[in-house]
Amino acid sequence: MDLSGRDFLKLLDYSKEEILYLIKLARAFKDKKQKGEFHRYLEGKNVVLLFEKDSTRTRCAFEVGAKDLGMGVTYLGPTGSQMGKKESIADTSRVLSRMYDGIEYRGFSQEVVEELARYSSVPVWNGLTDEFHPTQMLADIMTMEENFGDVKDRKLVFLGDARNNVANSLMVICSKLGINFACCAPNSLFPNAELVETCKKFASENGSTITLTESIEEGVSGADAIYTDVWVSMGEDASIWEERINLLRPYQVNSNVMALANPNAIFLHCLPSFHDTNTKIGKEIYEKFGLEEMEVTNEVFESNASKVMDEAENRLHTIKAVMYATMRK
Ligand code: CP
Ligand code: NVA
Q1: How far apart are CA 161 and CA 168, in angstroms?
Q2: Is 154 found in the same domain as 227?
Q3: How much is the average pLDDT of 46-54?
């Protein structure tokens, strides 16, 4: 499989075989890392990481992944570069392409990462936009494979804001890999109808289904993986919290929800998560709305079914696979 020179902007651009290949490569990298085996295959190359939003996992996975592969790394945060203020995306992209061998971008509109890629002569990787978060799902599916083996015909259910970047990307990857996908949310938070139609076509080609439902019983029944994400995403106005809490409180992942799923079902979350009041925002929400846990209870988050730390670790191996596969000559 030759993916060299390809961008990684959204999973819609990748075939089922290409996605499975990247996950297989990630498994090989995980094995090498665990055994301490040499894999500085990209020595002498350099990558630049552009972050217009905060990050822990994605930034660290790109940095450690690049360094493990022998590469140099430059991080440019929301302030401190000319991008967007004095320099257009097109000019930034062309300049960075002259110095670097790969460009990662996390920001707001998907259009920006697509534009970066249009002007870049080196691979561009999407580290999260408002619409998609494609590297996350490689780690999610890798984690499902570690628990279930072949994931085809399994069922993944997303509860929460089903229009967000994580839910959109999950729907795409599930439909491409023949995993049954359901989202449980109030219908005002269902994903974009056009994207649903596109994914339904992939799903029917791959023998799986897509279900949008307001009913937790219907959505969660037969689930192998229960997935949730924050109720308010980065870039959304803080004034939306009250409305979102009112809409999504009934969709919190708690032990009752887990009990409706298959007996060996796992819990997944891209993280960060509000499962207690040990965060600044968590504390503010508690003081304002009396809610100690939001999208998932602490009990479920800390349970044996929760695979969120494996999932977080797998970000490193999958992002390394994406960089290696697309940069390799
Ligand atoms: N899951 C994820 O993308 O985490 P960060 O925002 O910490 O990168
Ligand atoms: N939907 C979340 C995902 C964070 C990894 C956000 O965009 O903030």
Answers
A1: 10
A2: yes
A3: 97
Active site annotation includes 270: yes
Q: Residue written as tokens 């990857």?
A: 173
Is residue 237 over pLDDT 80? yes
Say what the pLDDT of residue 272 is: 98
Say whether 39 sits in a helix, a strand or coil: coil
Q: Which of 101, 136, 184, 199 is catalytic?
A: 136
The answer to whether 314 touches 320, Cβ cutoff 8 Å, is no
Q: Are 317 and 189 in the same domain?
A: no
The burial of 215, by beta-carbon neighbours within 10 Å (0-12 exposed, 13-18 middle, 19 or more buried), is given as exposed
pLDDT in tens, 113-128: 999 999 999 999 999 9
Tell me what the pLDDT averaged over the chain comes to: 97
C-alpha 173 – ligand 1 centre gap (Å): 18
Ligand nearest to the CA of 314: 1
Does ligand 1 come within 6 angstroms of the Cβ of 136?
A: yes
Amino acid identity for residue 1 in this structure:
M
**Nearest alpha carbon to residue 321 among 117, 122, 43, 125:** 125
Q: Examine the domain organization and report whether 219 and 237 are in the same domain.
A: yes
Host domain of residue 120: 11-132+313-327
Q: Tens digits of per-residue pLDDT, 64-85?
A: 999 999 999 999 999 989 988 8
pTM attached to this predicted model: 0.98
Angle between helical axes of 165-177 and 134-148 (0-180°, round to 10):
50
| Nearest ligand to residue 170 Cα | 2
What's the one-letter identity of residue 328?
Answer: R
- Provide the pLDDT for residue 80: 87
- 232: its two tokens: 């308010």
Asked whether residue 115 falls in the same domain as residue 182, the answer is no
Strand partners of residue 47: 73, 102
What is the spatial order of strands in the sheet that 46-51 belongs to?
72-76, 46-51, 102-106, 124-126
Q: Find the CATH number of the domain harbouring 217.
A: 3.40.50.1370
